[in-house]
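Students often ask why we bother predicting the structure of a whole assembly rather than each chain alone. The short answer is interfaces. A chain on its own may look different once its partners are present, and contacts between molecules only exist in the joint model. In this exercise we take two input lines together and write out one structure for the complete complex. Read the inputs first and try to guess which parts will touch.
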Amino acid sequence: MQFTSQKISNVTLIRIQGRIDHNTSKDFENALKPHLDECISGMNKKIIVDLNGVDFMTSAGLRALMIAAKTCDKQKAEIAVAALQPIIQEIFTISRFDLVLKIFPTVKSAFENLSVDAVGDYGNNLSS
Amino acid sequence: MTRIRLAAKQENLEKFLKFISVLAEQNDLSPDTAMKIRLSIEEALVNILNYAYPGCNGDVEIRFRKENDTKLVLEIFDNGIPFDPLSLPKPDLTANISDRKVGGLGVFFMREMAEDVHYRREGDSNILTMIFCRH
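Now the answer. The structure tokens for the assembled complex follow.
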């Protein structure tokens, strides 16, 4: 599993690539942790996790996302996932993760929902 | 019947999953069916590797067979402490976020992904049977 993160306006975009299973879920937690710490400290209140590059996820991955969502909920921060592959969407649907965090079909639509300020910067980022 | 038997150790998880991937290829399973089998087997194995043999060593065996060319039957054997994963309560998926439990989805996935799941204790063996339909 690989990940990158970047700050776009007032949103942190985390891109995940690969499988999130019992062997890699710790890496996934580590990818999320510094940004959750920023939520706790009040430095950052909006996180979008781009899952377009994730083709497999076990309960260990959902566990990490649940912890992240609970942390954000407590801090009145927002976390969303976007661009799920059909197979991941199915896993989210049957486990009712639509009740846990916001799910968007594309990263752009996640930006549009979470931060009007960041949408333009996200668009510029894509074209640069 | 095809089978694999290895020590119940975390480092063997990938070998078990490789066995499942090879089965999926050999039997020309759809990506969807292969994913459901892999997810269910991984969830079941992680429980066994973590909890079946507290303080001692043991093996895990996976057996695979086809029935009528439409059903795929996977059985997981271990000789660990008696444990019926299907006895665990189903998670409350509709609870609001502050009340939702962090874990508990592994067994839920096994139930959801397989067409049918059974547990039985035979002698000193736990036997978990998962049946999948070929799509």
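Check your guess against this: Chain A is about 50% helix and 30% strand.
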